[in-house]
Please model this.
Amino acid sequence: MKIFAEYGEAYRIEMLAPDNWHNHFRQKDDPRFRPTVAYIASQFARANAMGNTVPPITTAEQIVQYRRDIEEAATEAGFPNFEPLMVLMMTPDTTPEMVTSAFNAGAYGLKIMPANVTTHSSHGIVDYKAKLFRDCLRVARSQRKPALFHAEVVDPSISVQDREQLFIPILSDIREEFPNLPICVEHISDADMVQFVMNADSYVSATVTPHHMEVVEADAQHDVHLQCMPYPKQMKDVEAVRFAAFTHPRFFYGSDNAPHLRPTKEREHPSPASGVFTAPVELSVLVELFERYRQLEKLEAFLSERGARWHGVRQNKGEVTLHREPWVVPDVIDLGDGNEIVPYKHGHTLNWRLADCLRLGQPT
Ligand code: DOR
Ligand code: ZN
Model:
């Protein structure tokens, strides 16, 4: 990583092309799909393609088709080398054979979403002790593939503030039966969970979003566009997540970029859709955040190295350059045909911009 500075202030950064280990593109023919692929592929050499689409990605055939759709959209946007990272969405009916086929089709892991925890999760897991579910985890363990957990209990009588920490016993129980199963706690948000991951051995990691590094519960109550699951927590949690992102080798980037059209976010009934549309601003926001806390030299590890290392894949070859150039994030992004979407940091001035002289993912 090269940081160019003048009079003690950085003005240009060059670093290894980054990875985004948690992201939602939505599906082909959805107005959110192509713009989201373009934003993500312009910043990342590889990004995860979460499969909570409609219908969800639950078979090897769907994985192959979904990857093709994303690659086509990325190529159309000018990023032919962009690599989608595919996962299999687990349902109560997923069998070990389906898991094996998905891995053979190139899925790198299993996504475990509790049923009805958030957007399009009705097909999710209900019983973590079910034999079929445990048999699927056994396949993942034997193939050294990770289980990627949306780690929240879903009981509506439990406050959103407590839902992640109450998932710790479920993870502990799974770890007891499968100590060698790689587990990633997705979009980590709670200080107790941060401690759990830090105290665990090298089989356990976590992804960190930009918003869980700075948004607290009160912010989300004032701006519906900051509402997501897991719901933003308290300052002590945000500080724990941020500290882990800055310092710990098993915490790496996964934005949980989750586009929702404006009316579904701004409605009152049913309650607003959960998810933050970070795609247009991700690298700018991260540079700014790491710079603010004087951790800029840690950004490349967080974005481009730790995730690849934990997942056991090669690091990217391309490079990305950002320069200091203030710009104002639009209040609303027009996706065409009257479809509007409100991005993270809407109306804010950001100080860093992606240099358009380099294209990501091109071999150096
Ligand atoms: O807030 C969220 N939105 N959390 C998730 O886990 C899913 C995501 C979505 O797909 O919109
Ligand atoms: Zn997600």
